[in-house]
Amino acid sequence: MAERGILGLFAEAESAANAGAALREAGIEFEVLSGSPYPEGAFSEHTPPHRLYVFPFLGALCGFSVAILLTAGTQLAYPLVTGGKPVLSIPPMAIVTYEGTMLGAILFTVLGVIFESRLPRPIVGLYDRRITEGWIGLLVVGEEGQLGPAERILRQNGAVEIKGG
Amino acid sequence: MQERKDLSDRQINRDLLWPVLSTPLWFWLAVLVLGGILSAGAGAAAWWMNRGPGVAGLNRPIMWGFLIVNFVFWVGISHAGVMLSAILRLTQAEWRRPMVRAAEVLTVFSLATAALFPLLHSGRPWRTLYWVFPYDFARGIWPNVRSALVWDPSAIFTYLTGSTLFVLVTLLPDLAALRDRTTGIPHRIYSILALGWRGNPRQWKLQTLAGILLSALILPVFVSVHSIVSWDFGMAVSVEAWHTTVFAPYFVIGAVHSGVSAVVTLMALMRWLFRWEDYIRNEHFDAIGRLLIVVATAWFFFFALEFIFGLYLREPQEVALRQTQVFQWPYNMLFILFILTAYFIPVPLWLFRKVRRNVAMMFWTSILVNIGMWLERFLIIVPGLARKQPFTFEWSAYRPGPVEIIMVTASFALVALGLLLFGKIFPLVPVNEAKEGQVLKAEIQVGKRKVPAIVREH
Q1: What domains appear along chain B, each with residue ranges and CATH number?
Q2: CB distance from B314 to chain A under 8 Å?
Q3: What predicted TM-score, i.e. pTM, was given to this entire model?
């Protein structure tokens, strides 16, 4: 059977939280959509783990390597002694390498945030504009047979509107 | 925060997104005036490039003048933006909410403006590419990483890239709010920019983490950038009056002083222009005023260190510099103006709660600080160079030319116009932060009192 989805829209966070708890109790997976962040677990939702913390370290390592290559390579490519300093002078190399390391870490962190947020998403899918006006959406995706009980739970707990289905 | 009003998400959208969704008449007038000043600046820059730096008041031994002073000034302003935002995000201070975005955007525009000035100063901006871009454009000669003038672009590039990405990542939820409030072409553009944001808990969690992680990464970069700017001076072999070990922290804390003050100026303007009294409240000015007292006093400590230690040791270069700064006209007049406006007028005023909670007073005192901090950079650079070096056979005093004055004035117009246009396309106060503040504003009963309950996510 094909996968389909329904979106239950709630005007109040309390009723959305009750619906979330009821869905969890019934063993139905769902996704919460909101216009502002709520404390984790406020809607009994399951948030899958992420690996964002790996990205800055990877980025720092890449940035460090590129910066070392750049500073050492450019100096060795034109080995002119200036100011009596060695060709591979460590203090200035440390400065540029530091900046390179931080740049790598920042770039990878941003990429990590986008990747782990599963963005970009070309099609927004089942969604409602009122979510950014304070409404809460509970999205249930599943096979057709599973959506009936989910819709019932959403309606019983005060869903103002159900979209999709 | 105690004075927060109860506002619905719809109300917050309406209040904070109106400058994007509608355009008042004053906006066009401001664009016209600022654009005019900017055009004059562009004309002056073209004249400068066409005729060469001889059109300025620069002459041996003072070859660094208004443009370099302005460069250091704008790098300084750029610091507080992200510094303030990063520290407030890392400590999850509740009063951060209305000011983080404006502070971050101020960083981006002031840093980009700052970066223009060394290029303009060179007189041949296109040739500076040869000095800093890591490529052997001619005869196999690569940039010399042993030069302090190469460290600067690397630090500024990292800081500018990091700050811009920081702004863009934290904008995502607000872009989604704009996507949902617009139609037609704007809707399409905001849909693309929002990257398909839906606001699920994973995305919100990563937003919070992004703020914290990027803050933690940008803070050390911010310290390094102004340290490196100070080394442009401190590591100049021939100008002995600049050889001071305290320059890096002195520059960093000076940058924070001027930058946080600039954020206050910007907050007051935003509150007046966009009528955001419910978001940028008196208590925010009170909090930032208290922070400013600490920052200004820390800056004054470093200033005193720099001033007194050289004199105490009776180093001839230091004594000569201080003599120029304090006794020689017009530097002595500028010195008095600097010390009064940077510290002795604003800080005693900020000690009073009534002043800190008065938006107009905070606005004018923050302007005073930045007049003082601009003069501080002038008094470090110009009198530092105004000393006869060995084997110098020409000698002249520095008086800025009209071209320099116009370019410096235009830099203020450039930053203001950048902020204004940004505020026309994106919200200057983070909408999602304001909404989160409402979600977390619940109060709990402790004994017979109700106190704010703050929920913190990690």
Answers
A1: 9-452 (1.20.1630.10)
A2: no
A3: 0.91
